Amino acid sequence: MEKSAEKVYGYLPQDIPPVGAMLSLGFQQVLTMFPATVLVALLTKFDVGVTLLASGIGTIIALLVSGRRIPMYYGSSFSYIAVVVSVMSIYDPACFGDAAQFYCPTGVRIVQVGIMGTGLLNILTGLLIMRIGKEALDRVLPPVVTGSIAITIGIALAGAALGMASANWTVALITLVATVAFSVYLQGKGLLGMLPILLGAVFGFIVALIMGQVDMSGVAAAQWVRVPNITLPAFENPAAWGTVLSIALIAIATVPESTAHLYQMSLYIDALAKEMGKEPLEIKNLIGLNLVADGTDDMIVGFMGGCSGTNYGENNSLMAITRNYSVAVLMAAGGIAIALGFIGKLAAVVQSIPVAVTGGLSIYLFGVIGMQGVALIMSEKVNLFDPRQLAVGASILVCGIGGSMGLPNGMFPFPIPGIFPDGIPAIVFAAIVGILMNAVFLIFPPEKFGVTERDNLNL
After folding, report:
1. Which of 31, 42, 228, 286 is the most exposed place for a label (fewest CB within 10 A)?
2. Bridge pairing between strands 411-412 and 309-311
3. If 0-12 CB within 10 Å is exposed, 13-18 middle and 19+ buried, where does residue 279 land?
């Protein structure tokens, strides 16, 4: 006999829990997004308070844009770190290269223009998908392109992770081992299982504190309540417009990630709806709207001075565990994040985390970004026995990873006036090469030249 709705535990997107449950569940969502969101701000020297504030406002507005149909929380994205670090190093080198500095407003204002460009690209992509369908977009950006770019983004950051870890290898390696242990052995352990990065950071912090590596003077001097350092994008700076293309192109890697999150959530939500005796919501059909919401979030955080965002798989997993998909809860979480943005002591505590601890976390996190690209290629069953696929993927990997590590400042020496006056960033160049090479194969398919595609031996 079918279960009655009253006997089934969980909340669908349109459900509004009691106030107490809504606030507690919302706080749990904030705890889940907090470690990664704040870590990106630390690595890129954005203001922590603005990042939390913008994350909350961006999430609320994105939920409204989706018509309160797509339950997602938006936090800082690791995918953009490499290109943001490159931009900050070029246009605000004195501040960004100073280990004592935690916030570089000149560089942030330039990056903000690029983040808003990313938002516009996501919105246009979403509208295009709503018009022509996702299949057409997949031909232009197939998994071999998006997966290889994701691999490139993660591995290109390896030098930065090891550079931070070298500040104190003992602290960094202990932090790394602890974080990996938490992520592996706390799987399925409720909320604790969702917070391996936070737990790893706390563990590393305690070790560094015992070793005398932590300076807490900034915490004592910080105000309890402060106004976040909101800045406006540097639209008047010609250099900022060059960041639009370089930062926005990274959306190539985040579009399939966001879509995968949507499919995942759709399955869980429809399973709960079925148990409640209700019709499936099938939010998987809202691919275009989902990207429009993503883009709206980036427009908001870019305008305010927060880190470029994405919807969080960690929060999606938490919703699956708790069977809570209420949009009202996510809006409450956004409100809590906004409030946290005004707590000066919190920002000071985050900034007191030693560089070595951040390095230990980054070794793991940046590697995971690369492995997610591998997972995408595997899950989509890309035929890596086909020379066409191999050519696209290999060219992206060598240009992106090799260029980032081997070329001066990670730039290809092909200046483009007004856009890339100092050369093209390696990851951007790799993306352009991969997209153009794939386009050539679409225009001149090997089959028309009598070439038979090789069998995928993995199948």
Report:
1. 31
2. unpaired
3. exposed
User: What is the DSSP code string of 359-383?
Assistant: HHHHHHHHHHHHHHHHHHHHHTT--
Q: Where are the alpha helices (DSSP H) in 283-399?
A: 287-304, 313-322, 327-340, 344-351, 355-379, 387-397
Go through the chain and tell me how many residues it has.
Answer: 459
**Among residues 353, 59, 108, 343, which one has the least CA distance to residue 222?**
343
Q: How far apart are CA 125 and CA 119, in angstroms?
A: 10
Structure tokens at 106: 């000149």
pLDDT (tens, 9 = 90+) of the chain, 459 residues, equals 344 445 677 899 999 999 988 998 898 899 888 888 998 999 999 999 999 999 999 999 999 999 999 999 999 988 888 889 888 988 999 999 998 899 999 999 999 999 999 999 999 999 999 998 878 878 888 889 988 988 988 888 888 889 989 999 999 999 999 999 998 998 777 667 767 888 898 999 999 999 999 989 888 888 999 999 999 999 999 888 888 888 888 887 788 778 878 887 898 899 999 999 999 999 988 999 999 999 999 999 999 999 998 888 778 877 887 789 999 999 999 999 999 999 999 888 888 989 899 899 989 888 887 887 888 888 888 999 999 999 999 999 999 999 988 898 888 999 887 677 778 888 889 989 999 999 999 999 998 988 888 887 655
Domain-by-domain residue ranges, the chain?
5-379
- CA 387, CA 385: separation in Å to the nearest integer? 6
Task: Extract the tokens encoding 273.
Answer: 């709806």
Residue 160: half-sphere exposure toward Cβ, Cα within 13 Å = 29
| 3-state SS class at 97 | coil
Stretch (H or E) spanning 38: helix 19-44
**91 phi and psi angles, rounded to 5 deg:** -100, -10
